[in-house]
Amino acid sequence: MAEELRDDSAAQSLAVDGVSVRYGATTQVLDRVSLTVPPGSVVAIMGVNGAGKTTLARTVTGMLGYHGGRVTAGAVRWGGRNVTGRPAPYMVRAGVSQTLEGRRVFADLTVDQNLGAGGITRRDRRELRTRREWMFELFPRLAERAQQRAGLLSGGEQQMLAFARALMQSPKLIVLDEPSLGLAPKIVTQVADTIRTIRDSGTSVLLIEQNAAMALSVADHAYVISHGRVTRSGPAAELLADPEIRTYYLGLADDGARPEPAAAELGLTGGRAGA
Amino acid sequence: MSHHARKGFAAVAAAAALSLVAAGCAAQSSDDDDTPEGGATAAERELAAVPGFDPAAGVIKIGDILALSGPISATAKEQLVGQQIWFDKVNEQGGIAGKYKIELITEDNQYNPQLTVQAYQKIADEVVMLSGVLGSPSVKALIPLLDRTDALAVPSAQDPSFAKDPAVLPTFPSYQTNVTNAVSYLVSQDEKFKTARYCQLVMDSDWGIAVSEGVAWVTGKIGAPTGTIQKFAALDTAFTAQITALKNDNCEVVVFGGAANNLPSVVAAATQLDFQPQWIAEFIALATAFKTSDIAPYLTENMIFTGPGAKLDDESVEGIRNLLAGLGDTEITVQHVYGYMQAVATTTLLEKAVELGDLSGPGLRRAATELDSISFQGLGGDVTLGEPEERVLPRATTIYHYNPAAPSGLEAAAVGYQAPEGFDDHF
Amino acid sequence: MTSEAAAGPGASAPSAAGAAGGILVPRLTQSWRSRLFIVLGLALIVIVPTNVGSTYWLTVLNGVGVAAIAAVGLNVLTGYAGQLSLGQSFFVGIGAFSAQYFGGSLDLPMVLWLPLAGLLAAAAGGAVAPFALRLRGPYLAIVSLSLVFLGIYIARNIPSVTGGYNGTVVEATATLGPIDFERPTIGGLSFSREQGMFLLTWSVLAVVLLLVANIMRTRAGRAMQASRDHDIAAEVLGVRMLRTQVNAFVVASGIGGIAGALLAVNLEYIRPENFDVALAVQYLAIIVIGGLGTLFGPVLGALFVGLVPVLVDEISGSLPFMSEAGSDGLSTTDLTLILYGSLIVLFLTLEPRGLVQILRRTSVWLRSRRSPR
Amino acid sequence: MTENLQILVGGIASGCLLALIALGFVVVTKSTGVLNLAQGGFVVLGCYLTYEGRQSWGLPFWLAVVVAAILTALIAAIIEATVVHPVALRGLYPPILVTFGISIVIPAVAAGIWTTYQLTLDDPWGLDKVGVAGLTIAQRDIAVIVVTLVVLALFLAFFRFSRLGLAMQAAASDPEAALAQGISDRVIHMTAWAMAGALGAVAGALLATTGGGGVRPGLETQALIALPVIILGGLTSPAGAVVGGLLVGVAQQFAVVRVPDVLGSGFHEVAPYLLMLLVLLVRPQGLFGSAEVRRI
């Protein structure tokens, strides 16, 4: 399946090609993972805690080195260029942005300063101004609180700020790590809407999610990772219909635990993981 | 499991047994050192070999433990140069007793007592004695070890408690004596100092305590009033508070017990507050660089310094003549004098020990008791020797005025001044 | 496994740390290899002093032994329990002056003054621990540093015990029953004081190592390590944080006190300034260079910190570009300091987990070369 | 009254010097999380490089200070990039000990190059003074206060108005999130060290003036005195460093003359630490520190 998609030769497509990742000398976290994010699409990565999702995100965004990890096999290609092992500043300049798990806004800085920090690699002042205006349009709450310290925002608002901060970089691809984690169901729906808006604005999205229901509701294509390997992949609609997926990923977070059929049936709101 | 263990213990036992055999040598070798005293008949012609002295090579090795690195290494190096000049001179004249050349071995103690002990252990078997140990704490740390090995050292320190210690050969007057002489000198120059108010600005340390003792004694003797005692820490750079207090106490004479690191800041604060008493300081508070510094006029105007030495350019004094010859283009300092005097003390003792035919530690200690006194070629007062408990430190101090035109800024005003008021016994 | 310790609280290698599981102390008395190790160690305690004739080298090694004991103590607090401290020299100082007070002024025997020195320091540790433990990281580091300054200040002002600025000669005698460590005789052979002190110091070090190894296998010891690795999780798991950390503080200070007592009898003269910041930083350097949270790290670290300057000094003295003693320019000691400082930097850059890790890797490498046969 | 004011002014001047050194600590701790024990080394370099610029290259005093600050900043940045950065993220201890290693090396190198003799900087103030409302103030003390104010203003302007300043604030707030925005931790860390180097150098130059005690070895220990200041003010707060510096400077001057003898000798040396402990009992994060710091 990955084979077909890789043929997509659009300039800004992301291809992860047989990548293995280790932390330190011994711990292998990813094992020959391949996936593709075509331009203008939302691709979801699903899996349980510790499956390697965040590591995959780091591999793509250049954050791996910061955490002491390295790619031992395979390659990451962005727009046809081999970007394996490039650090985050390089990836950001190349058009790949990210939000981190837990939102991680700069709590001591104002909302405005957070946006400024997000756009720090962009030197075009006019572009930055229009971007900022667009962000305030997209997230009116942020405009209201522009001069407040980000640490004082609510969880949902912080997630919006994290999106806005990353979008200040005018990315071609944005990697979102667990954007729904710890948010109320109503806010999760907003997050999903925002992801669609981002996609529609021309930025493709690599969505790392434990909440498989939410992920599959916005994704065009999805991959399931388990123990560092891609175990399933396909169009989101196809996976949504798959009985096995329904049982294990839409049902429950815990590996091998007894499925909760009710949660699987719930679709969008069900299956909030872990916690 | 237990099998391995037992085997292991057997191994230890064997190893221990072996090592004990080897240890026999290590342990007994020290006893061997004491034996050669038997050949007394040969002593006349040739001295017995002891650690640090090989009669065949005709070389006596001496150790000097001083701070060759760190903040006070500059003065320490000057002391070393002073020592070397006298030893070179002695060697030039044939050596001790005209035949034994002196060789100086230096170790760096970084002014740290623990490193001093370590440094001594390192060279203890290579030297007959120490011609210098820099710093009172270092000397104190070394004394138990010197006593155990019956060794002897010349301290580069002015603590009066060393006077009667058989482990050391004291050379310099104490801080207490210097202060007493300085105050007495002032009184001898001008009656007004008899009734002046005496205050102190001293480092919060044993040095400061020593200075205070001297001030208390001499002011009591001349009946002068005393004022506030201000203290400071070695690292202090701001002295406004202390100088304010001294000024408000109407101090007319201030005894300064501090180092060259502290003096510029003190002068700056005194100038700022227009405080111009008569100052008394030790030569340690001076650096040659002050001659070209902005503080020079204040020093000239207000300060006298105490220390060993004579007029530093007076070639009629033997010690000065030798130092100037040895120093060449280098400007002479009192630190050079200081080191030179230690070397003189060392060679005087060695001459005596050679005469008595024993360069061992106990031999040197005996020689020290046989000597009546040591004189320092006009550079300082004699030290009275004899039995340790009878020793008296030198009583004479040279009083200097500050004068940027003089060598290292010191113009001797009274060479070898000795207070007619006398001294406390334990100074 | 203990190497995980070196990653410290700041590092967050994600799944790696979790997978490694609990931190295990070498099971000292169970595997035959560790038994051999003990036996070898004990043998060395006898063999080294009896064969090293040089009092200088023995003095150096005795200093290493004392520093190792103090560092083993600090390692309990910093390495195992994860609390950065620059205050160890304060507790070492308490031990040193206590030893002189009990052993010298009161003339008690060593069986009393040595434990008393440890107890007093431990009590001081227990007293300050609750305050110190409100703080983390650099805050604790600097606050613990203030202990050192306060300690010197207090010591200066109780001259009846410490001798004040002048310090005091140590009169405590190192005698244990029939054995006089200052004038040891074994089977008719007499040994030097330095040889006796080596026996005493390194034997105590061995006992302290055993003690720490065993503490770390107890519930309380595991709790310390748990509190280091996952502060919050440990609390959830029912580890009583405060008590655990106070325990670590008390053990660390107590061992520091014992080191201080031995330092006192080794030095024979102590003064308040002996127990300064430089000493405190040196202990920290020892455990980090040796390997945090490892049993033998402090010993290796102490050997490094104690021997490197001495060895470098031996070498640098013979270098042609060095200035003569007494002249200007780079002195031998300056060069020694430069090389010593550079080596610390180099080692930590190459292997932040310390000498223990380097040793371990070397032995793995050796074994892997042997194994094909 | 005048006397107290006189002491107060002296305290403010010495507090400003402490503040300059403390700022050097704070900028590194805030941006990189490392407690930089090598800060004293920068003080030493600043002192001797200013001397070199003044006496060997014949530069005017101010130019010599600026050149010394730039050179020290460069050296600091190089040190960071080569030996500190590789361990900066490896826990709390290795970086502290690496800076300890550096702190041993720098003074020894300085001693090798410039000897340990006292030297004279020939600063423009010497012992000059001015009278203000019944007080006499040393010109050098005024210069110290002005320099500190200027440096502080530059500092605040940098953080408020420059891109790099914003990046540094972001990195201080959350290093990983900052990296995720494309803010290179290498650049941030090097900049922080360069700033610390410059701050230390300026402090060193001022300490080496006649009023500060002249050019002399052992200046690295002055940095130790600033340690309680940074805790007092809050480890990551530039404003705290300045307020803490002033507090300690003033408290120490008054401790010298206004404390009864009962408190024993050496009290004014520990006064900063006692003040620090007192503050910590009330506010464990220091006067200006944010509570999050405790989670380090």
Protein model, in words:
The complex is a heterotetramer of chains A (275), B (427), C (373) and D (296). Chain B has helices at 2-34, 73-92, 113-123, 136-148, 175-189, 206-222, 240-248, 263-272, 296-302, 318-327, 334-356, 361-370; strands spanning 53-54, 59-66, 101-108, 129-134, 153-156, 198-203, 226-232, 253-257, 278-282, 303-307, 373-374, 383-384, 397-402, 410-417. Chain B is of the alpha/beta class and 427 residues long. Mean pLDDT of chain B is 88; it is low at 1-44. Chain C is mainly alpha-helical and 373 residues long. Chain C contains 15 helices and 6 strands. Chain C has helices at residues 14-20, 32-51, 55-80, 88-105, 110-132, 137-156, 159-162, 193-215, 219-229, 231-236, 241-267, 277-290, 297-316, 332-350, 355-370; strands at 168-169, 175-176, 179-180, 185-186, 189-190, 269-270. In chain C, strand 2 (175-176) and strand 3 (179-180) form a beta hairpin. In chain C, helix 4 packs antiparallel against helix 5. Residues 1-28 of chain C have low confidence and may be disordered. In chain D, 71% of the residues lie in helices and 3% in strands. In chain D, strands 1-2 form a two-stranded antiparallel ribbon. Chains C and D meet through helix 6, helix 12 and helix 14 of C and helix 3, helix 4, helix 10 and helix 12 of D.
The helix content of chain B, as a percent range, equals 40-55%
Runs of chain B in which pLDDT lies below 50 for 5 or more consecutive residues are 1-44
- The third-level CATH topology of the largest domain in chain B is Rossmann fold
For the sheet with most strands of chain C, the description reads: 2 strands, antiparallel
The CATH class designation of the largest domain in chain B is: Alpha Beta
Following the backbone from N to C, one meets helices and strands of chain B in this order, namely HEEHEHEHEHEHEHEHEHEHHHEEEE
Q: How far apart, in Å, are the first and last alpha carbons of chain C?
A: 27 Å
Radius of gyration of chain B: 25 Å
Identify the most extensive interface between protein chains: C-D, 52 and 54 residues
Overall pLDDT level of chain C: 83
What proportion strand of chain B?
A: 15-25%
